[in-house]
Amino acid sequence: MGIFSKLFSRKSAEEAVTPKELAEMLGGWSIDGYSGRTITRQHALQLTAVFGCIRVLSESVGMLPCHLFEQKGDRKEKAVNHSLYKLLSVKPNDYMTPQEFWELLVACLCLKGNFYGYKVRTMGKVSEILPFDPDCVEPKLDSNHKPVYKVTFKDGSQDVLTQDQIWHVRILTLDGLTGLSPISFARQAISLGLDTEQFGAQLFKNGAVGSGALETDDQLSDEAYKRLKEDFEARHQGMENMHKPFILEKGLKWNQITMKAEDTQFLETRKFQKDEICAIFRVPPHMIANLEKATFSNIEHQAQSFVNYSLMPYLTRIEQRINIGLLNDKDQGRFYAKFNAGALLRGDMKSRFEAYASGIQWSIYSPNDCRELEDLNPREGGDIYLTPMNMTTNPENTENNNDDADETTA
Questions:
Q1: Are 114 and 137 in contact (CB under 8 A)?
Q2: Do 341 and 370 share a domain, yes or no?
């Protein structure tokens, strides 16, 4: 069976005997000794803060254009004729757009710390990248200290692929080979967030009434106990039975025995967990709709900080892996990939045009450079770089400097 049929074939039946094996099969990690909850990628994504952070990161990277450039002396040009240019900016493979591909890549990095893709080559050059499920790939070093990847396909078969066949992008690593999984190392915080959500769901499911006890000084018969239990559950459990009055017999009294939500600081805990999850993924809280500490004066700076310190580490890792993993040896150093993050750093129209005016005045930009930044066509005569008259070089100073240089040389 070929590599393509293995990639897209139906997954074979698997058996899990122990909870640990089941967690590993689902790509999860058990939390023995704490809540006992098993955290998988699916469980983690059910926490709104985790889903929001991963969505913000993946979609932000996905909407950025990635182009291949060629360095020609002191100038650079888009390498539109290179086969990798189309792969990066138009068609990574036959069934994904560039945005979908980059979103998947960043989501894998956020959830598992690693992204693996199979490199399809045409005429010796990479023409497609087919993504692997990170749970199905196990990287190792062979006897020559070269990376090899043990891949388990959906049909249950296994194969060992080399670095020439696998494109591997990873985040922070302790061994230089395998990226650390944020979900694995933050599973306690994620579990606490899921526990608070479950607590709130159960609380409102029971009509926002905590558990308690029915007390009486008399002894109830088995028949009376069964009837009372069934009647109480039917009439007073669930949101639809909220605020219905209690009808108690034979001196029965209701005593609530659980702490109130205020006593457990339920809302404060939920807010803190959102901030903690944001810290794990380095996402500003306001980007997942937590505007408690956001103001009109600092939200723009937070957005710039998000690009510089949240997105740039991902973009840099991807760019460098493209340069050394997808380009041939003869193309490395001459061609390079670059994401255009400038669109995310642009301010409002007034601020942009003031910056353009300053750039043109001080000969940093030409008018056509500014028009290109605004996605406008160049105009005739717009390639001139202006120089202020009061900033030109004084010829007398130039001559004196040359004379001093001649004397020093003599």
A1: yes
A2: no
Do 89 and 112 have their domain in common?
A: yes
Q: Which of 84, 160, 90 has its CA nearest to residue 122?
A: 84
Whole-model pTM?
Answer: 0.73
What was the pLDDT predicted at 398? 54
pLDDT score for 265: 66
Instruction: Give the up-direction half-sphere exposure of residue 203: CA atoms within 13 A in the CB hemisphere.
Output: 15
Compute how many other C-beta atoms are within 10 angstroms of the C-beta atom of residue 237: 14
Kindly report the backbone phi and psi dihedral angles of residue 231, in degrees, each rounded to the nearest multiple of 5, phi listed first.
-70, -40
Burial of 220 (0-12, 13-18, 19+ CB in 10 A): middle
Same domain flag for 172 and 315: yes
What counts of helices (H) and strands (E) characterise the chain? Answer: 16, 13
Q: Are 100 and 111 in contact (CB under 8 A)?
A: no
**What's the domain range around 249?**
212-257
- Decide: 165 and 22 in contact? Cβ < 8 Å: no
More confident position, 231 or 404: 231
Q: Within this chain, do residues 110 and 253 fall inside the same structural domain, yes or no?
A: no
Our CA dihedral for 39, 42, 45, 46, rounded to 10 degrees, sits at -90
Mean pLDDT on 231-255: 65
Residues 234 and 139 in one domain: no
Q: How many structural domains are present in the chain?
A: 3
Q: Are residues 182 and 289 in the same domain?
A: yes
Give the torsion through C-alpha atoms of 267, 271, 272, 278, to 10 deg: 160
Per-residue tokens: 210? 């905590």
